[in-house]
Give the backbone structure.
Amino acid sequence: MNIESVTRRNSAHESTVTEKYLESPSDEQFADLFHAFTPQLVSFFRARGCNVSVAEDLAQDVMLAVHLKANQVRDRALFRSWLFRVARNAMCRHYGKQGRDLETVDLHAVMDRLPSNASRS
């Protein structure tokens, strides 16, 4: 079995699972969708520098957003690209939050660790 046939089979499975979920969203259909796309989302986040636990958390957040907003998909043929756009936005929000979480430093503790001017001579 070559890579091309595996890719075609996976793509057909994704299309089937996606179509079933979009036609009649149910817990069972969502579980199938979740199992089809979550490993890809984790890989997507890992390839962009996230550790495993963050990648898994972000993938779950994305799938929750997909479940809540799947009815907003206009063109079902573009579901996969929409899903990864949601993933990219989730990752941007994650890194944005990380950038705002700054570690504070106690200046008095820093001053105590610095050598005094008298000891420099």
